[in-house]
Amino acid sequence: MNQSIKNQLSLIIWVVAIIAIGGVIGSLTKPEISAWYSTLHRSPVTPPNYIFPIAWTILYGIIGACGWLIWRHQAFSKLSVIKTLYMTQLILNWSWTPLFFHYHLTGLSLVVLVAMDILVCALIWLAYKKMRAVSLLMIPYLSWILFATYLNFYIWCDITY
Fold it and tell me: What topology does CATH give the domain 3-160?
């Protein structure tokens, strides 16, 4: 098998794995969307529920591609920090769904999102010079999680106050 095919297969594995993990986590909380989430007072700009799985499938695909790019990049001084930022934000991302939908911990979920916002900003900043594609690909993800932070904040404020 030539190197080009190996690279393509490893990229596909990264993307499919990240999408699959996100999909499994999301599907585990599906009952809470109709039972709990639908009863919440949400922001007027909250998208319809069908938008979220579409957006997250695309974003997880991008996140998977970024992981593939990061892990195959040649070593440079900030690469280990970028890998740590990537993995930490990904773990926080996967933890948000059960924290919010299953445990209804809207405050802790908000803290997780703010941490993700900071980590992804740092990742974009640190990767820009050596891995510009990663930086640029992470911008839609950052935009979405900043929006998610607003939506979570809106719900948290409504529940808390």
Answer: Ferritin (1.20.1260)
